[in-house]
Amino acid sequence: MRDINLKATEYFEAVARLGGVTRAAEELAVSPSAVSQQIRLLEGQLGVRLFRREKRRLVLTLDGDRLFQTTTQAFGALRNARSAIARQRDVRSLTIRVSPSFGVRWLGPRIAGFAAENPDWNIRIDATPDFTAFETEAIDLDVRYGLGGWAGLTVMPMMNDLAAPLCSTDYLARLRAVSDDPAAQLSAARLIDSVKMLYRWDLWLAANGVVVPDLGYPFRFDRSSMSIEMAKQGGGLALDSVMLCLPELMRGELVPFSTDYPVVEFQGYWLVCPPRHLNRRIVARFADWLAAACAAHEAQARAFLASLGCAFRPGRLTEMTRGGPQ
C-alpha cells in the first residue's frame, strides 16, 4: 500500500464520480489546480492516462474506469463507516444479551413495543448462549435463564418458568391408543431431551414415580426452540418451557401431555447486570418494562393452563440441574 498515493487516488475518485475537476475541487475544498496536479501525479505513477477530453468533457479511459470501479467502492465504504461512527457518538443505545430461544420466541415478538415507547434509542439484541463478561464486554444487561446467584451482580427475578410435557394433538392421540394409563404412554413415547432446561426428564420421571424401561432419548437438543418445534411437528414428547410456547398451546398446536401430572414452576428468568448499570435511565426503564411484560405473560400462561385442568407445584432445588441459556 505504500506505493499508492492515497490523496491522488481520492482526488481521482471525486473527479470521476462528480464528472469534472471543478465540482471535485468544491467537494474536497481545494483549488481546481490542486486537483489537476494530483491527477497528473497519479497518471505518472501508474504510467497510464486515466481521462481523455471529449468536447470539453473529461471521459474515463479503460484504465481509468477500471481504477474508478475499485476506488469508488472503497471510498464509499469509508464514507459510510465514517458516517456510522459519527452517528454512533450522538445516538443513545441499549445493548441486551439473551439466550437464543428466549430472544426468538419471547423477546422478539415484544421488543417492538418497548422500542415504540423509546424511539430515540437504538436497541441491539445479542442472542447467544454465553453469559456476558461485564468487565470486558460492552453489554448493558443480560436476561438469563438459570437458578440465579451470580456473585457480584445485581440479579432481579423476572419470571417463573413453567415446565410440562408437551406434544402435538396427533401424537397424544397415538399415545392414548397404546394405553389409557399415562405411565404406560410415557414408556411408549419418544422423549425429546431439551438439555438446557433446568428441569429434565430423568428428574421429572423420578419426581412423579414413573419408571421407563430402557430409558433413552431419540432426540436431544441444546435449544428449547428446537425441542418445541420437534414436538409441534409430532416428533415426540418434549419436557420444556410453557413460557416459550404459549402461543402454540393457545392455538392448539401443542397440548399438555396429561393433567395427572402437575406443571412444575420455578424461578427461571432473571435480569442481570452490574449494579452501576441500573443508574442508566434506559436500563432501569427496560427493567421495569420487562418485569411488567413478564408478569402479564406468566399470568396469561397460568390462567390458560388452569383452564385446561392443569395443577401446579413448585420445583425443589434438589430436582434442578444447572441448565443453561435456552
UniProtKB/TrEMBL annotation:
Spell out the family assignment given in the record's similarity comment: Belongs to the LysR transcriptional regulatory family.
User: What keywords appear on the UniProt entry?
Assistant: DNA-binding, Transcription, Transcription regulation
Name used for this protein in its record: DNA-binding transcriptional regulator, LysR family
Molecular function GO labels? DNA-binding transcription factor activity; sequence-specific DNA binding
Kindly give the InterPro entries that the UniProt entry links to this protein: LysR-type_TF_proteobact-type, LysR_HTH_N, LysR_subst-bd, WH-like_DNA-bd_sf, WH_DNA-bd_sf
Under Pfam families, the record lists: HTH_1, LysR_substrate
Q: Which residues form the HTH lysR-type domain?
A: 4-61
Q: Which organism is it from?
A: Rubrimonas cliftonensis
User: Does the UniProt entry include the keyword Transcription?
Assistant: yes
An example GO biological process term is:
DNA-templated transcription
